[in-house]
């Protein structure tokens, strides 16, 4: 039985994960399921911090402080055909939240661009899972302390990418804020590959140097409001990447 009193995990749409669910104490445990009936979102957290929606094969949940209700969320995600369609509606979700989705068995989980809502991932019995707490995932996976990562933190303090993806537990990694983590229908998932790049905002073209003509590019036109991320956070610098697939991933 888990020792933690809070936290959640997102599971791929595959059978045989009842053992993960059963690790959470039954009292206070929340279990949301894929359209197939397999467990999808499992954890112990305040129900006030959960806004779930189920529309046929579509499952979407917001976790955290979000000033919209299930009715409003349902109107936003209505008509989704795949998790990729979320890219077009994320800007309509206010607040800093985690987002989890299951669309026809395809799974996606992500945090906010600011990094305040982190996502961590690991593997349990070869199956990728993701969640909001690295220590919780480590306990589920039976992961030990990553002594090298701890030594690195003591020696140099906070590090930048890619070293900042390492946690204090072996095999548990942090997902970069600009990426999403998930799995295809009935597939093994690709959290371990670093996730999928996700465009979080659009940037206007930078001013051209004197005497050099600027090259038009997609983005807000003159006078457009400052770009914001899906979490409503205004980035100090435009640094988003075009949507694409990590070469090392398989989703």
Walk me through the structure.
This protein has four helices and twelve strands. It has 251 residues and is of the alpha+beta class. It has one domain (7-197): Glutamine Phosphoribosylpyrophosphate, subunit 1, domain 1, CATH 3.60.20. It is globular, with a radius of gyration of 19 Å. The model is unreliable at 192-210 and 212-251 (pLDDT under 50).
Integer count of domains? 1
Fraction in helix: 10-25%
- Average pLDDT confidence is 74
Query: How are the strands of the biggest sheet laid out side by side?
Result: 2-3-1-9-8-10
Spell out the helices and strands N to C. Answer: EHEEEEHEEEEHHEEE
Query: What is the CATH class designation?
Result: Alpha Beta
CATH topology: Glutamine Phosphoribosylpyrophosphate, subunit 1, domain 1
**Mass-distribution shape:** globular
Our Rg estimate from Cα atoms comes to 19 Å
Under CATH, the homologous superfamily reads Aminohydrolase, N-terminal nucleophile (Ntn) domain
Going by helix content, strand content and strand pairing, the class is: alpha+beta
Segments where pLDDT lies below 50 for 5+ residues?
192-210, 212-251
What is the percentage of strand-forming residues?
15-25%
Q: How would you characterize the largest beta sheet?
A: 6 strands, antiparallel
- Number of separate helices: 4
Amino-to-carboxy terminus distance: 32 Å
- How many extended strands? 12
Kindly report the oligomeric state of this protein.
Answer: single chain
């Amino acid at each position: 039985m888990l020792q933690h009193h809070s936290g959640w995990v997102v599971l791929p749409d595959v059978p045989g994960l009842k053992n993960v669910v059963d690790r959470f104490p039954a009292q206070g445990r929340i279990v949301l399921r894929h359209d197939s009936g397999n467990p999808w979102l499992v954890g112990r957290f305040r129900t006030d911090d959960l806004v779930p929606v189920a529309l046929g094969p579509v499952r979407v949940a917001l976790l955290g402080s979000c000033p919209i209700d299930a009715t409003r969320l349902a109107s936003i995600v209505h008509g989704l055909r795949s998790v990729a369609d979320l890219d077009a509606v994320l800007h309509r979700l206010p607040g800093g939240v985690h987002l989890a989705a299951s669309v026809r068995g395809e799974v996606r989980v992500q945090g906010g661009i600011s990094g305040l809502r982190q996502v961590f991932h690991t593997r349990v019995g070869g199956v990728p899972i993701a969640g909001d707490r690295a220590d919780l995932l480590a306990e589920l996976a039976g992961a030990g302390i990553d002594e090298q990562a701890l030594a690195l933190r003591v020696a140099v303090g906070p590090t930048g990418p890619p070293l900042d993806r390492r946690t204090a537990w072996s095999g548990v990694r942090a997902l970069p804020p600009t990426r999403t983590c998930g799995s295809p229908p009935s597939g093994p998932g690709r959290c371990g590959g670093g996730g999928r790049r996700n465009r979080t905002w659009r940037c206007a073209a930078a001013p051209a140097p004197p005497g050099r003509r600027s090259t038009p590019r997609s983005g807000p036109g003159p006078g457009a409001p400052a770009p914001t991320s899906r979490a409503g956070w205004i980035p100090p610098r435009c640094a988003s990447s075009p949507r694409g697939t990590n070469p090392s991933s398989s989703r």
